[in-house]
Every structure is written in structure tokens, then in C-alpha cells.
Amino acid sequence: MKSNPDTLLNTHDELIHSDALKVKSHVQRSQEDWILHTLMIEGYDVPFRFKRQGKYRTLRGARVNLTYYPAQEMVAGVPMEIMKVVRVKRT
User: Fold this and answer.
1) pTM for this entry
2) Is the pLDDT at 7 greater than 80, yes or no?
């Protein structure tokens, strides 16, 4: 089933949707039974993160549509802003 970003945005007030963002960096790491994907987007200083069951082909240099919300994560006792991605689609 394909997800519609408009439906998600209407349901959840805190979600943000951005189109045609250029990916500078894409890192994939194993984390228990999941693969943690971290994207760095051109023009943004915060990492965009999401988990999936398997690896993707690299998104480096690609344009993507992202639906995400801001969150904080503790790294070495310091709060760090991240963006939790709920929907990613290559354009």
C-alpha cells in the first residue's frame, strides 16, 4: 500500500513534508535486527534518520521527498536534534 503524504500530514500535526531534497550523504548501519539509515541533506545541519529491515541502494546524490518530524536524541549526555523520517521516496 502506498502512503499519501497529504493523508499523513492531515492526521499528524507535527509532521513536515519536503520535496526534491538533495542527499549529501547516506550511511547504513546494523542496529540489532534493523538497518539504521542516516541521511544528510544539502542545506540542513541535522541528520535525518529512519530504520528499515533491509539495506537500500545508496541515496547519495539523489533527490528525495521526505516526510519527517523533529526529535531529540541524547549523545554522550548532550541532547542532539534529529529528524525522524516516516516516509522517504526517491523522485
Assistant:
1) 0.85
2) no
Q: Which positions ≥6 away from 71 have C-beta within 8 Å? A: 81, 82, 83, 84
End-to-end CA separation in angstroms for the chain? 18
User: Of 45, 53, 43, 48, which Cα lies nearest the Cα of 27?
Assistant: 48
| CA–CA dist 45, 38 (Å, integer) | 13
Residues 36 and 20 sit within 8 Å (Cβ to Cβ): no
Backbone angles phi, psi at 19, to 5 degrees: -110, 150
Name the 3-class secondary structure at 15.
coil
Burial of 67 (0-12, 13-18, 19+ CB in 10 A): buried
Q: Where are the beta strands (DSSP E) in 32-62?
A: 34-41, 48-52
pLDDT of 12 reads 67
